Amino acid sequence: MTCPLCTTENTLLIETPVPGGPDGASIEICAACADPDTPPDHFRPLASTMWSEDPALQVLAARILKRLDTDWARDLAEQLYLDDETRAWADNAPQGTEHKDSNGVPLATGDTVVLIKDLNVKGAGFTAKRGTAVHRISLVPDNPAHIEGRVEGQRIVILTEFVKKR
């Protein structure tokens, strides 16, 4: 299979929901595209794939370009044309999240948080130390008390009550 975002061939594809639009809207992408810690250069093929006729793919491309903090991604985002309905969907990324840090500050996908206490990571055999920064978090869609992020190279679930937004 080929990933429709990055065009990586012969890869396992993961069904990924594209929230904010039609119910059940989803797209199959590779694990690297689904991982918020993937380096920005992985998404360079968006220069061509963002022109797909699939609205879900267009929306996902627009959201990824908006999230990336590089000159080339900003240039591509400015070039991307979306019809009014698709633009509204792309801009309708769930903002009113119920995910809040220990101080009640809303969290969003891609945020950086800091651990406010040492956390014993079950099954991984290490303790995530207080003060550790967790970059480019993901929100667990069905549970506002959980986020996901990488600590010491391991992808873990973290309770929001133990983090503060940076």
UniProtKB/TrEMBL annotation:
Tell me, what's a Pfam family for it?
YjdM
Query: What domain of life?
Result: Bacteria
In terms of Gene3D superfamilies, this protein maps to: SH3 Domains (2.30.30.40)
Q: Which InterPro entries match?
A: YjdM_C
Please list the residue ranges annotated as the Protein YjdM C-terminal domain.
99-165
What protein am I looking at?
PhnA domain-containing protein
